[in-house]
Structures
1.
Amino acid sequence: MCKYKEDVDKMCWSYSRLTSFEHCKYEFYLNYIVNDNEEYLSEGNFYAEVGSYVHQILAMIFNGELTPDEASQYYVDNYDSNVFYKTRESTMDKTFKTCADYFATVDFGWLNDYEILGVEKEVKFQLEGYDFIGYIDLLLRDKRDGKIVIVDNKSSEYPFKLNGEVKAKSKHSFETYKKQMYLYAYSVMQYYGEFPKEITWNHFKDGGKFATIPFKKDEYEAAVKWFVDTIHIIEKESEYEPNLDYFYCKNLCNFRNSCEYIKMKSSEKE
Ligand code: SF4
């Protein structure tokens, strides 16, 4: 029996909650069950902060608040008031330049073929009796065939090889990102009564290359089953064991400065 049944029962689920549990049960426990505790303060990181800043500028462009021509200068002018976390100097310089290049060269002419249905669109829905929330970066309707497309802005590397296969190093993350998009496909069906025809990732740190896959019913059903099965596992969880993945723990985890497991691991290394 889960020790925290009450907390779990009233949870509003999301892609990030469930993937957080899959990655490190202890991080899930600190983030969503302990939640807002002085001893375990949740903090962001450089990579997430730059990603949010780029998402924010893209949303402004898609909402018509900024023209594509203004975006590059806006990015440079407002970078320091949006990105505060630090990491290695060389990584920060490279990331700043990669995103600046993206905004300086990106061409949104392709948008003329689409009607924008939503930008950072909040979707709330129930899946097998569980409450879910999500935010779709960009939801479009293709004017040429009237069908819906889900677009997600991603900071990760473009995942496909020249022959169209997924690169070995991108396989795990690609499968995870697909689950998120299929969860949003479920919400698209709830809101619009139809599934999207395609899912597209905009890899803005990889020259703005689009990775597109068709909606596949079998993959969708497997993803939906994964979300429900994972909730069932959490409902029975009582140990919340850590997953000590050293790079993630030291650089990306929101509890990297308070988690006792990584502190212990670091002191063993010294
Ligand atoms: S630092 Fe590592 S072990 Fe600790 S909560 Fe974060 S991911 Fe889990």
2.
Amino acid sequence: MRAKNAVHIPFTVAKSAQTLDGKIAARTGRSKWITSTKARNFARQQRENFDAIMVGVNTVIKDDPRLTSLNKNHKLLKVIVDSSCRISRQAQVFAGIKQGGCLIATTKKASVRKMNLLAREGVEVVQCPQQRDKVNLLWLFQYLYQRGIRKILIEGGAQLIGEALRLNLVEQMHIYIAPKILGDEQALNSVVGLKPLDIQQGILLKKIKVIPIDQDILVIGNVYRDR
Ligand SMILES: NC(=O)c1ccc[n+]([C@@H]2O[C@H](COP(=O)([O-])OP(=O)(O)OC[C@H]3O[C@@H](n4cnc5c(N)ncnc54)[C@H](OP(=O)(O)O)[C@@H]3O)[C@@H](O)[C@H]2O)c1
């Protein structure tokens, strides 16, 4: 937990699995699998340390993940950031929904019918204020804090992590790096939407830890703020 301008928001980690050249998916949008089985299992175990796991709706549409905790007794709230409620009702995130629940953070752009259908199926639908035509993330983080969520793991994609970093909502990065190079400018970068004009304006990570996992490495770093 941390106070941001005297408002409380959960402690937040952003995680990505990327190639050496910083790509999280091929130009087709396919991301299975960048890292080794061992690294993916380690990453899944980390979910146990969080109250909520959050992804952008494009990740659900492209990857159709389940976003479950390996520990059946652990309540992990799945949060999908989806300003128009584009998510399919058949999405796998809705499987095993009773374990920790599933929350769709949407806006008034979503159809009332779709919101009602999802709500009837046990999904928590929260209409958030908009910022830049999308879900207002600061509002959402405060809402989640008030709802009892203290630790959030953002598991992608690039737009959601970029916006959370831009708004200073991320405390720590967990970057799994595979010894692969895609070398394709149309493959997706791990973070997008930031527009630094020079290198000094880039996000700096401090207190770096490097953990080898099989052929991959995990880089953990705290987002440095005192710039
Ligand atoms: N390797 C990895 O670690 C990894 C992890 C996850 C995903 N991926 C890959 O990443 C790709 C998807 O990433 P992506 O960057 O395209 O999309 P994303 O971050 O998964 O989702 C972005 C979408 O979320 C919605 N959204 C609503 N409010 C938002 C806000 N305030 N900030 C940001 N997004 C908001 C927007 O759609 P609306 O405007 O419709 O609301 C936006 O287009 C897929 O190809 C997937 O395979 C890779």
